[in-house]
Design brief:
The protein is of the alpha+beta class. It folds into two domains: 4-101, Helix Hairpins (Orthogonal Bundle); 117-422, Bira Bifunctional Protein, Domain 2 (BirA Bifunctional Protein, domain 2, 2-Layer Sandwich), CATH 3.30.930. It has 13 helices and 16 strands. The chain has helices at residues 4-9, 11-20, 27-63, 69-101, 139-146, 151-157, 167-186, 201-207, 232-236, 294-312, 358-363, 388-398, 410-413; strands spanning 122-126, 191-193, 198-200, 218-219, 225-227, 243-245, 251-260, 279-289, 316-320, 332-340, 345-354, 366-368, 376-377, 379-387, 406-407, 421-422. The strands form four sheets. An eight-stranded mixed sheet has the order 1-9-10-11-14-8-7-2. Strands 3-5-4 form a three-stranded antiparallel sheet. It starts with a helix and ends with a strand. The relative contact order is 0.14.
C-alpha cells in the first residue's frame, strides 16, 4: 500500500509513474475523499471540543441551581451531528481504502521503462548451453517414456494442470527441495520455517494478492481461508502487526511449501508439462530489512536464488523487469530464466523482488532504531529459490541422454541415494 500523504501531495508525478506501468488510477477521487476526510475530522474535533466545554458549563449551571435547558438542547444537536459525522467519516475512509488498496507500487527509479515483457533487458547470461547430437525431447515426453510422470492419470484424480510423479521423479523433486533448503540455511544464512499452507484474507491483503488477484486464488468454501499461491504470503505475515528491534534486522527466512494457483486467464499457455500447474512445490526466500539496505539485499537475494542453478550446472539468464511487466506489489524485480532445450528458449524459474515498504504498510510491520522513540516501516523482499517443478523440468531436459535416460547432476546424487541416472520408473 502506498503512503496516502505522498500520493495526494504528488498527484501528477504519481499518475505519470503509473502510466509507465500501463496503469490508470482514480487519483482525483482519492484526493477528493482525502480532503473530505480532513474536513470531517476538523469539524469533529471542533464539535467534540465544544461538547466537552459545554458539558462542564452545564454541570456548573446546574450546581448553581440555574436552568441549563438551552445548552442541553444545543448538546443534543451537537451529539447528533457528531454521530452523523462519525458515520460519514467511516464511509469516506472505506472509499479511500478501496482506492488505495487497488493502487500498485511505484517502480524504483532504476527500473527500465517499457510496455511489456518484450522490453525486459537481459542483465547477464550464465552457463554453456548443452550440445546434443540428437533432437532433445520435452520433459513431459521424457517423463512419460520413463514412466515417471503421468499427467493423464493426474487429470483423472483431479483435472488438468496437476502433476503425478512416480519413482525417481518423485525422489528428484524431494531431493531438489532438500538441496535448496540446505543451501539456503547452511550457506546463505536463512532460517527455515514451515508455515501454514492456508491463510486468511487479511494475510492475502497484506502481501497484495487481495483484492486485485482474487480470481487467481483458491478459496475454501464457507471459510475466510485461501490456499496459498506462494510461501511469500504466510512467511511475510509472520511479523504482521509487530515492532521489531533494529538489531533483529535483517531477518531471513526460507520455506518449502506447495503452491496453488488457478492461473485464471492463462488457458492455452504451457498446458503441457510442469511449467504452469495449478499445484506445484516451491522453495521461497523472504527478507525483512532496513530501508537503507534493501537494494543491496535484493542483489544478495538474486545471487542466493541463482546459485542453485550454478550448482546444478544448468544455463540461465537474469532479466530486469521493465515498468510495464512489473508485478503489482514490486518496486523492482529480477527474473531468473532457465534454459529449456526442447523449446530452445529461457523460461522463468524465479522472480526476486523488493517491495520496499508496500507490504509492510499493509501488514503494519515496523522496527525501532536504537535510541529512537518512533518506528519505521521495514522493507520486505522475496524470491523463489527455486520453483521446484520447473527445476525438475530443467534437469530432465538439460541432462537427457540419447538413449532417453536422464543423468543426475553431481550435486544431487547424494540426495538421490547415490543414483546417477534415471533409466526407468523405480
Amino acid at each position: 500500500m502506498l503512503d496516502i500523504k505522498y500520493v495526494t501531495q504528488n498527484l501528477q508525478e504519481v499518475q505519470k509513474i503509473f502510466s509507465t506501468r500501463g496503469e490508470t488510477a482514480d487519483l482525483e477521487s482519492l484526493n477528493f475523499f482525502n480532503q473530505q476526510r480532513k474536513k470531517i475530522l476538523l469539524e469533529l474535533e471542533d464539535l467534540r471540543h465544544r461538547r466537552n466545554v459545554v458539558t462542564q458549563e452545564i454541570a456548573l449551571i446546574k450546581k448553581a441551581g440555574e436552568n441549563a435547558e438551552k445548552l442541553v438542547v444545543e448538546m443534543r444537536t451537537v451529539s447528533s451531528r457528531v454521530k452523523d459525522l462519525a458515520a460519514f467519516l467511516s464511509e469516506t475512509e472505506e472509499k479511500i481504502k478501496t482506492i488505495v488498496m487497488a493502487l500498485p507500487n511505484l517502480p524504483h527509479a532504476s527500473v527500465p521503462v517499457g510496455t511489456d515483457s518484450a522490453e525486459n533487458p537481459v542483465r547477464y547470461i550464465k552457463g554453456n548451453l548443452p550440445a546434443f547430437d540428437f533432437v532433445p525431447l520435452a520433459h513431459w515426453t521424457l517423463g512419460e517414456k520413463l514412466g515417471i510422470l503421468d499427467f493423464n492419470r493426474a487429470a483423472k484424480i483431479t483435472g488438468t494442470r496437476f502433476p503425478l510423479y512416480f519413482g525417481l521423479a518423485a525422489k528428484l523433486e524431494r531431493a531438489l527441495i532438500n538441496f535448496m533448503l540446505d543451501l539456503h540455511t547452511e550457506q546463505h544464512g536463512y532460517k527455515e520455517v514451515l508455515p501454514p499452507f492456508i491463510v486468511n484474507s487479511s494475510s492475502m491483503r497484506n502481501t497484495g494478492q487481495l483484492p486485485k488477484f482474487e480470481e487467481d486464488l483458491f478459496k475454501l468454501q464457507g471459510w475466510d481461508y485461501y490456499l496459498i499461491p506462494t510461501a511469500e504470503v504466510p512467511v511475510t505475515n509472520i511479523h504482521q502487526g509487530e515492532i521489531l528491534a533494529e538489531d533483529e534486522l535483517p531477518i531471513l527466512y526460507t520455506a518449502y511449501t506447495p503452491c496453488f494457483r488457478s492461473e485464471a486467464g492463462s488457458y492455452g499457455k504451457d498446458t503441457k508439462g510442469l511449467i504452469r500447474q495449478h499445484q506445484f512445490n516451491k522453495v521461497e526466500l523472504v527478507k525483512f530489512v532496513k530501508p537503507e539496505t534493501s537494494y543491496d539485499e535484493l542483489e544478495a537475494l538474486l545471487k542466493n536464488a541463482e546459485s542453485i542453478l550454478g550448482y546444478l550446472e544448468i544455463p540461465y539468464q537474469v532479466i530486469e523487469l521493465c515498468t510495464g511487466d512489473l508485478g503489482f506489489s514490486a518496486a523492482k524485480t529480477y527474473d531468473i530464466e532457465v534454459w529449456m532445450p526442447s523449446q530452445g528458449i529461457y523460461r522463468e524459474i524465479s522472480s526476486c523482488s523488493n517491495f520496499e515498504d508496500f507490504q509492510a504498510r499493509r501488514g503494519n510491520i515496523r522496527f525501532r532504531r536504537k535510541g529512537k522513540k518512533g518506528t519505521e516501516l521495514v522493507h520486505t523482499l522475496n524470491g523463489s529459490g527455486l520453483a521446484v517443478g520447473r527445476t525438475v523440468a530443467a534437469v530432465m531436459e538439460n541432462f537427457q541422454e540419447s538413449d532417453g535416460s536422464i543423468a543426475i547432476p553431481k550435486v544431487l546424487q547424494s540426495y538421490m541415494g547415490g543414483i546417477k541416472r534415471i533409466k526407468q520408473c523405480e
